[in-house]
Design brief:
With 223 residues, the protein is of the alpha/beta class. The protein has seven helices and eight strands, in the order αβαββββααβαβαβα. A five-stranded parallel sheet has the order 2-1-6-7-8, with helices on both faces. Strands 3-4-5 form a three-stranded antiparallel sheet.
């Protein structure tokens, strides 16, 4: 199954579907989850002449099993935990602590790389659109939502091209609205198969797209 040629096309299709009131048009910040969420977020930011900002998070894998997620960690080191794994006792706390430390080091590294010396934008009372290229487990998105709420964001929207049904349900009640183009109920479904071209993005590609988005800022400032 192929729905999108690449992440940019997925972002354009999301942007076409999104109908945000013009009353809040000038109050929007698009937060892309690096790496893929930056590519998907760019057409959305372009549509609304809004800021595209990286919201750097990191998945926390279960030791020796990258397919199972303990949760995700935010820039301020808050952790969203996969309670199902905890209840099933798949995780030993002593084993997970070094994994958490390593994940947080990666969050700090990438945030410095993508943001440079800029501080994270003030989200208070702003309309936030959080974007990623897929919603698989949902915990990284929950971490992004938690970060936005703790920074007193106003309305929070999630925009994703494709999602698993369980992850979609995990996230939908935490935000004002979630925009998704395709939701799969098949747990064996390979989400990446929705893309014709879906390579792992490099940090350099993220910084290039963020630099491109500076042109959006210039247009906004001149309005």
């Amino acid at each position: 199954m192929v729905i999108f040629r690449n992440r940019f096309e997925a972002g354009r299709k999301l942007a076409e579907k999104m109908k945000i009131s013009k009353k809040i048009f000038n109050n929007i910040i698009v937060l892309g989850i690096p790496r893929g969420g930056i590519s998907v977020g760019y057409p959305i930011a372009k549509k609304y002449y809004s800021y595209l900002e990286p919201i750097t998070l990191e998945k926390i894998p279960v030791p020796d099993n990258d397919y199972m997620e303990y949760g995700a960690i935010t820039l301020d080191r808050h952790i969203i935990i996969n309670d199902k794994l905890i209840k099933q006792k798949h995780v030993d706390n002593e084993e997970i602590e070094p994994v958490i430390d390593k994940a947080y080091e990666e969050v700090l590294r990438r945030d410095k790389l993508f943001r440079g010396f800029k501080t994270f934008p003030n989200l208070e009372k702003r309309t936030i659109i959080i974007v990623d290229d897929m919603l698989s487990k949902g915990y990284t998105m929950l971490a992004a939502i938690k970060y936005a709420k703790e920074n007193k964001a106003g309305r929070i929207f999630v925009a994703i091209p494709v999602a698993y049904y369980e992850a979609f349900n995990l996230v939908k009640d935490e935000v004002d609205d979630i925009i998704c183009l395709y939701v799969s109920r098949d747990s064996s479904f390979n989400i990446a198969s929705c893309y014709e071209y879906f390579p792992d993005m490099k940090d350099k590609e993220v910084t290039e797209i963020l630099n491109m988005s500076q042109e959006i800022y210039k247009i906004t400032d001149n309005k």
